[in-house]
Sequence to fold (251 residues):
Amino acid sequence: MVYIILFKGRSPALGGNEKIDDFIQKQKIRDIAFEWIPYNQFKNIKEINENNSSFTAVYSAIWKDGPLYWCDLDEKYIRRSDDDVVLKYSHNIRSIGEFLDNVKQSLIINDNMIYGISQDQNTKDYIIVFQDIYCKKCNERYTNISYKWCKSCQIKDLTNLVSSGSEKIDNFIQERQIKINDYDFVFEWIPYNQFFIIEEMNEDSLSAIWIDVPLYCETQEGKYVRRSDKKIVLKYSHNLQNIDEFLNEVC
Fold:
């Protein structure tokens, strides 16, 4: 199955070169949000390092409109404005074909880390635009670069959530949080007063509405937020002898 990104309203910017525009169109058919990015979209451009060979230079920048990404909540592509990016300049490139060969090689190595290509209107150098790979909070490399998810920062954020009042349960929850390896998976203690419209389904299960609703990763903001009023299922544990028995059942 092939997914194609559809742009509504104005057409996306073109590079003004037939070879480049054809190359970009081929990437979109591959289900990649890859585009030509006008150079005036970048601000706060700062040099990171320059390759000794003088063929490439790397800069950090902020992309004003920001990249396209799929929003699960809205079920459509939207832009993440003022996004941090990395610009890799190609100096002394002899032809557009040579530059596009470099882009192809970069896509093989960093397929989901490249937003598109651009050109410095002053120097005429072509540029590959990469995702920023470092967390703004701790400056460590993102655990999941595509979703700007930092596992260590998530653990710190979850540690500050409400306590169960039981040391064993709190320790169990923290152990589970440390083992999380997915940006969109959260494990937490939920106060019972967060549930309403509780209705029996069978002997051990009830349906309910969760007021604050589970945490999910809002990739546009790079933080965890809550959706309101979600229907969930509660499984009750009857006649358990102690907390350890209950936690074994959770596992």
Remarks:
- Helices lie at 18-29, 96-109, 151-159, 167-178, 243-250.
- Residues 151-250 form one domain.
- Confidence is low (pLDDT under 50) at residues 1-11.
